[in-house]
User: Fold these one by one.
Assistant:
Number 1:
Amino acid sequence: MATVGTRSHKHFQLDAAKLRRAKRILRAGTETEAIERALDIVIAEDERNRQTVEANERFVTSGIDISDTYGTLEK
């Protein structure tokens, strides 16, 4: 998932406990690696969400007829 791009120096004030926890959870060797992995996860999740919304919209507008075979939805 990681993309090679330009790198820039940024300075943040982050919660040290959260950063340590993310580093451990993501099995990152450095704090920078933990932040990059976390950002990759967020970007991938956004892409999955976007694709899910698009698929749902295609399904809803497809005109397919859905019937309640067992009759349980009308209760």
Note: The mean pLDDT is 91.
Number 2:
Amino acid sequence: MVHDGERVIDVHAKALRINLDKRRYGTFAEIGAGQEVVRWFFRVGGAAGTVAKSMSAYDMTVSDAIYGKAERYVCRPRLEAMLEHEHRLNLDRLVESRGDTTAFFAFADTVSARNYHGTNECHGWMGVRFQSRPHDRDSQIVIHVRMLDGENALQQEALGIVGVNLLYGAFYFDEDPELLIESLLDGLTTHRIAIDMIELSGIAFREVDNRLMSMKLVQLGLSGAAMFDPSGAVLQPSEVLYKKNVLVERGSFRPVCHVNMDMLRSARENFERDLALPASTGDVVELMELTMRNLREEGGEVDRTDFLARADMLAASGKTVLISDYFEYYRLAAYLSQYTNQRIAITMGASSLRDLFDEKYYAALEGGILESFGRLFKNELRLYIYPLLDQATGKLVTVDNLEVAPHLHKLYGYLVDSGSIKQLENVNRDYLHIFSRDALRKIRAGDASWESMVPPQVAEVIKTRRFLGYLPPKSPLLE
């Protein structure tokens, strides 16, 4: 048995501990890559005390007859139907006979492992619905995995290990969700499995904020990015971005200011016009992106209170949030291109465009800035540039007068002339004087003028929840 301190990390030992735990009893339902998870429990011995039933409804007609019809078979609704059906059967059939001593569970997965020709997307949904103790209300964990091994047999092996890790985490780490997440890749590496979505729900996780769990995935390298909507619900990127045009704005959002919202509005109007899309068709997904580099403090740690404040401000603005570990824009573009075959656009301020042409950021690339730009613009990606008001001179910095290194003039000119870099003209010039750093300073100083720098709903969230070091304005009577 292998331990990390007091923690079991060996998959054989994990499966055996579960089998020897007399409280745990449930069903395994697996579709798409063999019964890879339950196999571990049969292999280590003692499975009769754990496995009530093991099944795999591979045939679509049979699967539909059991779980109901589905448009797709590797999707979250199918997984949820499997968990609901199997867990309900256990409770209906077994509570009366052994409910006082048993915590029931249902484990399910529906996956698409590598096919014979290697042409399919290798991914899957996996989850467990369980009782933490006898007669407890249900709790649930759902994850989405991407299999990165090049061989079907290796993908199946990795799925089996992740499934055992998931069950072990649910049963023994439910009071420490972060440790639960860390343990999911015990016995594996991020070169074999990526986990790009996790959602914990139910009584055992009633205090859990899944936005923090999403960030943890990225922080640990289990996923390059994670996504959640304005309500805080975790999203699976491939389902949100599938066949959609994507518009991204990267920022610190400390706080979310009028200028951030105006930049996105202006860029979307231009993007839809360039794509010849009718306004508000829903064919453009807007993402407000926070990078891990932006979230980390000098010591490399993430201030969770600060992160949640920014997430809540973006939620108040009605925006979907993307957390990514892709500081380089070409890596962000490559990530998004995995999930959509439509157009991708990024909007940024002129100062960020200037940084984009700073060659120090590409020292690690053999081809330097040319390689970076080749990757960034290869799928007709477009940059929409918001003007910068130079506070020292009062002049506007735009695509037309941005200064880049002399030897990059021709490269810059080519990208502008080809339409890869476009200036935003339809901007609200009343917002150009607003900078988030100034708003943050005023918030912390008790200077009420910051309220005119942010949308009303954002101001309300900041004041109500005392975000960003907010100090109420001083009363003249107290001075």
Note: Residues 77 and 177 are 24 Å apart (CA to CA).
Number 3:
Amino acid sequence: MVFYFYFRMAIKIPYLSLEYQNRLIRNEALQAMEEVWEAQWYILGEQLQAFEKDYAAFTGTAHCCGVGNGFDALYIALKVLGLGPGNEVIVPAHTFIATWLAVSHTGATPVPVEPRYDTCNLDPGKIESAITARTKAILPVHLYGQACEMEAIMAIAQKYQLYVVEDNAQAQGARYKNQLTGSFGHLNATSFYPTKNVGAFGDGGAITTQQKDLARQVRAFRNYGSEVKYQHDQLGVNSRLDEIQAALLRVKLPYLKKWTTERQHLARLYHASLQDLLELLLPVTASGATHVYHIYQVRTPHRDKLQAYLSYRGIETQIHYPVPPHLQKAYESRGLVAGTFPVAEEIARTGLSLPLWPGLKEDQVRYVCACIRDFFKK
């Protein structure tokens, strides 16, 4: 009994570890950084051009433009499409607040729509009732790594002549009806924040598009609104994916398919071990969509107690996201009180993200599942 107690307390499973990935790519990454060192060119150079080409090919798009981070990718995409004061953008009620903030910083107004109860993604069936004469775009978020139901979203956008900007920060490599996320919209944003499925060693982001003219505008806007040095045709920003990050992302990108397969395998283990627990709602994938499990979120009304119990058993978890955007102080002027979006609020109140990352061992997943089952038995 004493030995078992010691063994249990000695186990530590982090929510996320990059050790496996870093060890796997260490030599390639060091070589890539040395190439940048030797080239002595750090901004808008050959590494960025090469990565943009690689990432465009990966997403099945014609163009990719590297930018400073995922938020800038959203903001720049919206600005290039002409969003500003007086416009409205349909956004999910349940998402990381960056989605809303990007809209707000253009001067436009984010108009939230409830997610589907089962998938947590934007509910296409509720979009049309939120559209007004001021609506100019729809901003679907492929949340947790699952593709949104893009066929229905694109049909609504076409019907009302709206732009679509995908937020693909969490779903690199996911598909809807065999088309990759980040390739549906007019402009599509992604993030390479270090925790993403393909992450940089710092901030980074990109915008993808099929349209050459939009790509040209994005490249100018990210570079002070300039296409020719010292000539500035618009009020642009300074947001470039630097050469070091581009070089490291070039190393990581070829591994993404393998890492995604690992994530999906671990998710299946969680599914198989936990699917019979009646008080635990597991991730649900919509018909036609695939899931790359950037986040493996379960839901239970006992979320806080379960999280505390797992912590006691040496298991780290996260909550994505405990306070919906409409209840954040930053948006209190909108007057969107508690109860306005009950589905989003329930997800925020009950969701718990379990450890899932390339390199996580099957035995570790089984231990997490055993602890969860033990919690519900009690």
Note: Residues 19-39 form the longest helix (21 residues).
Number 4:
Amino acid sequence: MQRWLRELEEGLGQTLDVVFAVGDVEAFQTKDDHRRKAAKRAMPAEFADYASGQESLHRPLHFIGGNNEDFAALHALPEGGEVAKGLNYLGRVGCRSFGALHVAWLSGIHAPRHLDTPLRPPLTPATQKQAGYFRAPEVERLRALKEVKLLLVHEWPRGLFRRIEGRPVRPWMGNPITRTLVDTLRPEWLWCGHSHEALAATLAHPGGQKTRVACLDEAVAPEGALFWMEWDDQGEPLQAGWGTSGRPVWQRGETWGQDKTPVQG
């Protein structure tokens, strides 16, 4: 990812102001922690080198929680904080302005059985898993927000489909809680992760408002895992694109839909 950011800056001809990640950063402090806790996938324990200072981030990174984080470390930072030099956890839920860009976020995924249960310290395998689920009070914290430019979530909202010839439609993807939240806040843009599939889509709201959605693939290739946008000084979007070339696929005034989904090898 660090190499991709450098290549993107070369393609754009300018430096990046802020970098976001939509969950599953898996910022385990040591290689042993990673092997013990992130056993679902055979991934290298790369972050330990950043935690120790052996490697450094090209640009500061702000991330929300997914469902595969180091929850034992993040539990003490529900409102966010720096977990390593340049790596900033935004917290379980919240909002913040980055210049003129007003950003809100919700970490975790939906687990119906645990939506209304209290969040307990992640001291056992069960409570560590449950720490990756958002709770009803966290969702309620966001409902009263106004004029959200960008909403970051880990799990897709219900109602996004990708129809590709020769591949089945997956109507079960996404959750209804996040969809209701999007319909309430009506953010201009929504960025998601979790489902390991890149997708461009638009959600329409009553009254003509629309939310443009960019779902990011897992970080195996930049074409689907890296999405960039340029905003003006008033927080209005100017252009956007996928990958590291710096070539925009969307400019202000154009429609945004499945035809903007990146073509991946």
Note: The CA atoms of residues 14 and 221 lie 22 Å apart.
